[in-house]
Design goal:
Elements: E1 3-7, H1 12-23, E2 28-32, H2 40-50, H3 63-68, H4 76-85, E3 94-97, E4 100-103, H5 107-115
Parallel strand pairs: 1-2
Antiparallel strand pairs: 1-3, 3-4
Amino acid sequence: MLVKVLHNGSCSKSNAVLEYLDENGVPFEIINITEDPLSILEIRTVLKKLNQIVFHIIRKTEKLYMDNFANKNFSEDEWIKILSENPSLIQRPILIKGSVAMLGRPIDNVKFFIEK
């Protein structure tokens, strides 16, 4: 089954997952979220497949987050809009296989996800 990878080319973890998939012959499609940001609907769909709330996929160590969003109380809808406008704040990589998704870290989780 084809694995979709929500990817940021400047992220070493994301690049490592692509390398792992390639080396293991796993068919995948790259969705570069910095070049082609996810829509609000796409983010909602990813969250549903992850079975997570939006706060789970926010990169809280990102400078943009620290400078502009840390310690602020936004609703789920507001966060989703913020992520759609600022894709660098989305944790990556996120792997999607059919109706399920997972955060692609650590790499051992990726191995388990691919084998299931």
